Amino acid sequence: FEQILSDSSLVKTHGYINGEWVVSASGNLFDVVNPATGEIIAKVADLGVVETQKAIVAAHKAMASWAKRTAKEKSAVLRKWFDLVMSNQEDLAKIMTVEQGKVLAEARGEVAYGASYIEWFAEESKRIYGDILPNTTTDRRSVVIKQPIGVVGAITPWNFPIAMITRKVAPALAAGCSVVLKPAAETPLSALALVELAERAGLPKGMFNVVPGLDAPQIGERLTSHPLVKKVTFTGSTRVGKILMAQSAQTVKRTSMELGGNAPVLVFDDADLDKAVQGAFAAKFRNAGQTCICANRILVQSSIYDEFVRRFTEKAEQFVLGEGLSEASTMGPLITRNAVEGVSTLVADALDKGASLTTGGTQPAGEGYFFTPAVIRDLNQSMRLSKEEVFGPVAPIFKFETEEEAIEMANDTEFGLAAYLFTKDQSRSWRVSEALEYGMVGVNETAISSEMIPFGGVKESGQGREGSKYGLEDYLEMKYICLGDI
Ligand code: ADP
């Protein structure tokens, strides 16, 4: 597919360690597949424990030279990286669409969104302040300085192949940390193109290493057990997050976890119905429903339920499924055949237990891992869709009677990432926002993410925040210095 790019040298198939493109000692490769066609588009070096180890040691060495640069110099490198990502936006979007499946318009959007974290943390890197504390005795002074925590091990998913990386790598570099990244095996090309651009921006060797590989448990084990790695940052499933936290405990590493979500959208009968349908719809079907803050359960008050379902269904029927590179497509495939099977099973469970489909829910004939956008009504709490995260284009619409009931249903999950509500009542906005056990709440708005806000969850959706002024803290250690004999 390189011929569709204006700079085909952005397609890299080797790992990147200490400023060198490397293959594995075994010479093993793994396939990268276009989910819209099932075709193999690249074979990438399958690295493992040995290479991860080398990358960690290189990363540790590199930090010393990065520390010799002033904040302004480090900021300039990050800024240059941002500029290069944006000037290659179209190529990066095409690479992403080919390996991940999302339609080109969304891929362009993700490149810009991902780049915004680099720009933001380029700026924030100049704003790492310490503190001078009140004197505890007259002959002493107490100060606090902030220092980089150390080598960062990062593991990222396939649903946002660029943004999930820049959100971690940009603040790490801004804080002075080096990174060893294991990208998802489904989408290594975006990660490798990003590191190529970081190299062109002048990032010193060893500061950002990428270890693509199929054996995630082995690579993850090395990252979480190596004493030189001081922090592990992960975006992915709650199941894997718990494994990584347990492993990290052995060497008491700091962890940041962006795990699963089960976002509810609460639509009250005093809401602007057009806005509510539009907002819930956008939050549901972005990236073909494969987003951790996707509307997972749409809860609608009974008096407007039928009308809401009717309008929502009408919109869902407008989607044009197809390969993301075609400008006519408005929804791409799911990531794998397994993903399609998983989503189908959840739909079948709800239908077996008495829910009904108003549209979609089928697997079209032909190549690629497509699933027609489904809207399901008349669900109850016995169905798997009421509890489990559905990572696909399925909109389960539940009915509620009262505000209390809606809050109870919304909170009845171990997850707590994002929640949304639609109402015109000011006091209800506050009341419900405060009652929702979630890290982020959108009131009359579902496009809530940005590099300037703290993204993250509570409960089993994780810990730590990415983006915003708070995002840098996760990569910094505080040191108290007591100056005596003054
Ligand atoms: P998803 O459902 O998004 O694929 P996963 O949590 O399985 O969620 O995957 C997210 C990332 O975690 C991917 O990069 C994957 O390779 C990696 N991963 C999966 N299992 C493990 C593991 N046991 N240890 C470390 N990383 C893992």
Overview of the molecule:
The chain has 486 residues and is of the alpha/beta class. The chain has 13 helices and 20 strands. It has a seven-stranded mixed beta sheet, sandwiched between helices. It has a six-stranded mixed beta sheet with strand order 9-8-7-10-11-19, sandwiched between helices. Strand 10 (229-235), helix 8 and strand 11 (254-258) form a beta-alpha-beta unit. The mean pLDDT is 97. Bound molecules: adenosine-5'-diphosphate (ADP). The site of adenosine-5'-diphosphate has 14 residues, from helix 7 and helix 8. This is NAD-dependent succinate-semialdehyde dehydrogenase. Residues 21-481 form the Aldehyde dehydrogenase domain. Keywords: Oxidoreductase.
> What amount of the residues lies in strands?
15-25%
Question: How many beta-strand segments?
Answer: 20
The helical percent reads 25-40%
Described by the principal axes of the CA atoms, the overall outline is globular
Number of helices: 13
- Strand order, largest beta sheet: 14-15-16-13-12-17-18
Low-confidence parts, pLDDT < 50 over ≥5 residues? none
Bound small-molecule species: adenosine-5'-diphosphate
Rg: 23 Å
Structural class: alpha/beta
End-to-end separation in angstroms reads 68 Å
Averaging pLDDT over every residue, what do you get?
97
How would you sum up the major sheet?
Answer: 7 strands, mixed
